[in-house]
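mind reviewing this fold:
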Amino acid sequence: MVHAGSKALIVVALGACGRLGFEPGPATDAAGSDALADAGEPVACPPGYVAVPGASPLGTADFCVMRTEAKAWLDMNGDGLVTSDELAADGLPADASLPVGEYAGVPWRSISASMAFAACRALGMGYDLISNREWMTVARNAELVAANWSSGTPGTGRLVEGNTDGGAEVAITNPLDGYSDTGNSAADPPAAGWEQRRTLVLSTGGLVWDLPGNIQEWVDWTLGGPYDGAPACTNRELTEAPCAGYADEDYNSASGTLDRTHGAGFIIGGDGDAARRGGQVADRDQGRAGIYALNMNRFVDDTFPATGFRCVFRP
């Protein structure tokens, strides 16, 4: 697969072992255009991944996160599902599939947490399903970047939420436009369209697409080892006292003051054994979407039409 960027031609190819090669990617601005200068990424990342500085309070080292919600490499018809026919047409066994951080196509949905965990690890050494603390590392980094706030000042106004005001999960048909396929723009008022921007700007200048919205995403509660779900919890605002077994670093904003009024998200409780982060396409009106949104009402082998995942690479 070949992608043209303003700084480099990115060639993505599968080797014999099924792993992805490494090439540099273009830097982009908040709107999605290739405009920012190289901000000095902390680690070299595979194609389709964005470098994230580690956060010692969260116990994370520098890592790479998939720039979009996972897309199915072998999803020939773009429906977000990999069928046995599509696998057979590519000459692969029926249980093989590879997730990628591609702009084109809708997210890979209707996949269980256990399957998402296995799909990320199938990419090779260093690849894994994003852990909860890695999700929190991305979220807390983005929280402190002025470009992610309607006011231009962290903590004041509203955070970007992505595609959360109804409709369907959408692809990214224009990677140069952070509002691609939402019908909104930066000219819209906060809470009436501005927040539908799908790109989060990191402190490095890198962009992560659709983390707070579009679809919910499975996370592994702990880093490494077998898949691990979150402790049970009840519905609550992010600013309320935590449930048993939770620390602020598991779910709360860096400031500890953000909630639904900021577009930061809400905790949907439950006694499931799997955790999802982010929001869905119709979550804005109830304030459920956001970079800190957390949901514990599903189980590790459940599948859901509006739930997908994203992978990380740990150097």
